[in-house]
Every structure is written in C-alpha cells, then in structure tokens.
Amino acid sequence: DLDYVQQFLAAHETDETSQKELMELMNQGDYDRRTPLHLAAGEGHHQVVKLLCEAGVDVNATDRWGNRPLDDALQFSSSYAQQTEQSSELQPAACIETLEKHGAKPGNTSQSVQVEQEALLDLLHKYAQIRNGAPTLDWHDVKDLLQGIGQEPTDAVVQKLMTVADTDGDGIITEDEFMQHSEVFLGGRPARIILVVGGPGSGKGLLCERLVKECGVVHLSSGELLRAEVAKGTILGQQVKEIMDSGGLV
Using N-to-C axis directions, what is the helix angle for 222-232 and 235-245, rounded to 10°? Predict the structure, then answer.
C-alpha cells in the first residue's frame, strides 16, 4: 500500500539513527531475503518502487535465489504483457525504467532466463520447418513436438494449442508466437532431463532419491561417475582429480 509506505518512511525521516536502522531492515528483507523493493517490482507497483528508490534502499539487493529487484520487474513485465486484462495501476515498464535510473542491475537469474530461452529455441528448431525463410510449426509439427517431449496429444489438444498460439490465424506458429506461448505448449509436460544442482549437504541426494521413488526417473550422479573415472585412472579422471580433491566444481 503506497500510503502505508509513505507514512512508514516519513515516521523515520527526522531521526538519523532510526532511518539507518530502517534502511538496514528493509535491505535485509524476509526469510528469503526478499525486500519490499523485490515485492513491489515483482508486482508492477511503480509508485512504491519509485518511493523506495528515492528513499535510498539497496536497488541491487539479492534474494536467496540470486534475484534482484530488476529481475523481478523484468519477469513481471514479460508475464504481464501476455495478460488480456491489464490494470492501469500496474506499470511494469515504468518500474524497470526507475530501477535502472537508480543503478539497478540484473542478477544471476537473467542469465538463467537467457539459457531457458535458448533451450526453447533449440526445441522449436528441432521440429520446425523452414517456410518463407523462417522456422515455423504447422499442425503436424506441433504434434511431433508434443510427442517428442513425452506427451501423447489427441488431435483435439493439438487443435486447441494451434488456436491459442496462432494469433494471426495463418495456420502456422512463428518463432515469436511459440516463445510467447511456450508455457501453453510445455505446461504440465514431463521434463526429459532434470538437473539437480546444489552445494555440499544441500539435499541433492535426498531429492534425487525421492524423484526415483515417486517419479520413476533414472538417477545419474555426476559425482559418482566422476569418482569412478578417477578410480579407473582415465584421462578424464586425471583431469578432474585435483579439482575434486580441492573441493572445486567440475
């Protein structure tokens, strides 16, 4: 609430010590280290974002997942653009502009988003046909793609996806249409490969055991495979032994 934030900040303006403590508290965030600026930026509340930035909060505060407020603003802007009903009170573009004006930079997740986009494009190009000089998907290509990611789509399902994603109604899905509606194509579909990454003692093994038991997947431990290579004295094992012994990442 904008009025609440204004009153809250105003109550600490006259006391320098109190204001410093307030900034430390606001920059610390919640149990996930998500600050008020994260929340406001992630919901498109420009006036709150502007007020917090002008108050001097850390515009590059990082939450437990590596997200910064600008990441949240960018992600919200992307999802908001696809909504059919938009509120005049939400201004994701203005949030991004204000954050960047105050020195906000993207965090680790921006790189993850780029990797995700590249993976989606790879998937598109695998099943697309070149039409008019560009990769596109027709009805049959969409069905092949869905089957390739583990789905068994009926003709009715394929037709429904075509109706949703083919925004110009020309019977083919362009690269832009596929990227814009990627969640429609992939939502609820099983992942073919799951990478579980984490530091020592973070619970990777326990999670993988649950995936094997509850989802019936095959678990391949990169650590066990690499240790086997070291034990065998292979070229790969010799290359990674020193890194592994020192606790580095391979």
Answer: 120
What is the β-pairing status of strands 134-136 and 129-131? antiparallel
Q: What is the pLDDT of residue 155?
A: 92
Distance of alpha carbon 101 from alpha carbon 93, whole angstroms: 12
Distance CA 235, CA 230 (A): 9
How does residue 192 score in pLDDT terms, banded at 50, 70 and 90?
low
Handedness of CA 104, 105, 108, 113 (dihedral sign): positive
CA dihedral 118, 121, 123, 127 (to 10 degrees): -160
The rounded distance, in Å, linking the Cα atoms of 65 and 111 is 13
Identity at 235, one-letter amino acid code: I
Write the CA distances from 107 to 58, 64, 67, 72, 224, integer angstroms: 13, 11, 5, 10, 31
Q: Which residues pair with 130 in a beta bridge?
A: 135
* Percent of the chain predicted with pLDDT > 90: 27
With tokens 């009903």, the residue in question is 85
Beta bridge partners of 129: 136
d(CA 191, CA 246): 33
Long-range contacts of 8-14 (CB under 8 A, 24+ apart): 9/51, 9/55
The pair of structure tokens assigned to 175 is 């690269």
